[in-house]
Predict the 3D structure of the following.
Amino acid sequence: MTYAPLTLEDLTPAPEANRSTPGLSAEEAETLRLDGYEAGYKSGWDDANAETAASDRRIAADLERSLSDLSFTYEEARVEVLSGLRDLLNAIVTGFLPTLAAEAVLPRVAAEIEALLSDLGTADCRLLAAPDTCRQLEWLAERYIALDLQILPEPAYPDGRVTLRFAGETREIDLTGLQSAMTEAIRDFTGSTMHEQEARHA
């Protein structure tokens, strides 16, 4: 028996005529390496900038909250302190200012008497004033002992007002406007303070 030789089909792909893998030159490889380095550096720099900006925003927000809390604490403390001063300021209005007005009118009255003495000479002198102001004026009787000087209380007068009658001349000395302005300013101040306190606790 004769056997024919077995022939197998060659499945190896034929080489392509134009297929080739071009190589990179050293210059091109260096260029690619530098480009990759630059891209990585830029990406890292952008990330760092973004993180820095986010950190700055957080710090600014924290600082703003702290300043807001500090401002609120200051306002609370200011209102409490001024509220505590209200009784003292009221005492100034009711006690100190009237006394101050009575004392302040004294040099004004003395100056008027001096001017009248210079112009008219010695004459009878009458001073009408509130009872508390009269007590402040008593020393004038000792200073001008040569005058027939009488100090007469007038209950209708407020402290700080004096009527001076001298040899037919009449002079009015009135410091009540100054006292009223100071009283109003203090009361407005304490009133606004209480309004602030009520608004904060509302």
